[in-house]
Sequence to fold (490 residues):
Amino acid sequence: MDRMNRKKILASVLLGIICVVANLLIVFNDRKLILNDYTMNITMEIDSNVSGELQMFYSSKSNYTKDCFTADRVKTIAAEKGYNGKIDFDVNAGSRFVRLDFPEEANAQLSLHSVTIKLNGVQRDIAADELASRITAYNQLEQCTVRGGTLCITTQDTDGYIVIRLGDIVDEIAAASSRGTYNIVLKVAACIAIDLLYVLFLLNQERVYGYIYDIVDNRALVSRLSKNDLKSRFAGSYLGVIWSFIQPVVTVLVYWFVFQVGFRSSDVVNSSGETVPFILWFIAGLVPWFYYSDTWSMATNVLLEYSYLVKKVVFNIDILPLVKMLSGLIIHVFFVGLILVLYTVYGMFPGIIVVQLLYYSLCMFVMILGQAYLTSSCVIFFRDLSQFINIWMQLGIWMTPIMWNIDTIGISGTIKTIFKLNPMYYIVQGYRDTLINGVWFWQRPELTLYFWIFTVGVFVLGRVVFKRLKPHFADSQERSATRKSMHSIM
Fold:
């Protein structure tokens, strides 16, 4: 007993040390903004009596080429009676180059007085002289000179444009923003959240240790049930468990054909400005969704499926959701390995950061387990819940940026924030950060903080509800069996 208490004290001390180290890292870390997560506002003071459309294309590629601008990264402002005053464009903050396309009229004359860039509360003004020095390329211009503090532009033909280099200015603004008030508040909030979680652990450590001991004591049983569960899904079929791997592969191929071949989805540009094949970007988001949707759906019905064990007094039913979690994890590990092989074939193996996939897999595991405890305990009393979850899975795959790019779809900042409240966004983005963008999880403190607050809250709620309803599981199963017998007789 004394030995057990010493282990508990040692574990509490170690967690306390981890919390202190985490607080110090947060306080002294001068984080660099992940620019693709933000929207940058470009305000131009411009005069012209030419009507038509002004278009701004933007590109996050590190080097300018004629084909670095794509049709999915463009903002348009139309004026019927010309332009006189300030106009605004909201573009992705990761943009290194912008291209201003003038109205499609020959000999159009425009006076560009100044440009102001705003990012995360910090702004930078660019005068006409500096703006002229930043013009990297142009097309169909009769004149482009600075006179009296104004950049005067006259087009030759209907396809006039200028390309402006903004990369170093964006980096300058981002560095200033990372030292701003918002970042300080975020650090304080992160430290408080970590400390509160540690206090919550100390107040409930007996329950936490009891739960862990139950899993450790029953590890052999959990392992055996997980393997049997995986085999039983396709019992009687010739290929057996192989179908568990064939079905997701076929799904990936179907989606790939629809989006890549049918809709001709363009390749994706990562945070470093490099082009990534669509299939690599796509599969990095779809594989974690497979594990999430399949495992949560199956874990929700686990008490109904193993009703014969629920009725046994001596059986610890707390481990049943874990059975579904682990059986699904076997398939997930296979597909993660397949992803790494595919990235290696394309010559884009991510390097040492690949270990971060373990972190995001753990995040998903804990989140699904908490949700499974909540829904599996409720579905016994409300059988329609499983149908609601199936409907959510059909909607959720489209509400999560898996098949569409949240950075280029052209939605407002508020709508983008709402989409990011979906906890699966953190997981999907995390897989892509690891495999494509080379971004560590601590570089996204807002999302990381939000995700763990949500996950811990759901897990605690799930465990509380499961414990409260646990004494009534067997009775509910008996009543349900009785009702089925009555219906069959009638």
In short: The longest strand covers residues 109-119. The two ends are 58 Å apart (CA to CA). Residues 378 and 384 are 10 Å apart (CA to CA).
